[in-house]
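Troubleshooting: if your tokenizer reports a length mismatch, compare your output against this known-good record of 203 residues.
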Amino acid sequence: STLMLASVACSYGPNKDWQRASQYLGYAALAWDVGQGIYSYYNDPMQKAIEMNKKYYVLTLGHKNVQLYEGDRDHIDQVKLKDFPHDMIKTLRIDEFPQSMQSRPAVTTSLGKKSEAFHDQYDVKQVDKTMLKEFFRRIDKRLRPYLQQHTHPLILGGVEYELAIYRSVNTYTDVMEEVIKGNLENTMNDEIREKAWAIVNGN
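Known-good structure output:
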């Protein structure tokens, strides 16, 4: 307070080094908010830095090795959740993809022999989309209780095809429009952090 600073200055006495006393008061005025009694000089910049260092989540999508990260400006770490569905094949318990060619009933040829005629009824893209949608639905279901505890913004990462499917099943409200595009399966954590922070920070 003002009285405290004044008493400290007076303790130097009329015959003491008043230059030292004035220097002390100058430093104290910088360090103390006299009216509030707090370290405004040091505390305010720190508080601003804390407020600016926003937390966020990154969900990297794919058919396998799906990961959730939690990060801020300087750090990013993988979030390890029990029973989290990382891999589509294992999660959906798929032994193998359906055969690409299906046979229809035997027909009689011009030579009188029976033969199977094959026709392509297997739409690879549609089946993959259906499986991915179910896989992502399970991811969303597992993430929901965890994300709602913290309510940080969620950034999606992946190829456009996967991003669109995940958005169609997502139920978390704070998903950012901007995304990290590309296959991030082998991307280093620091690179993910840099790209995520640029999105969160509006750069």
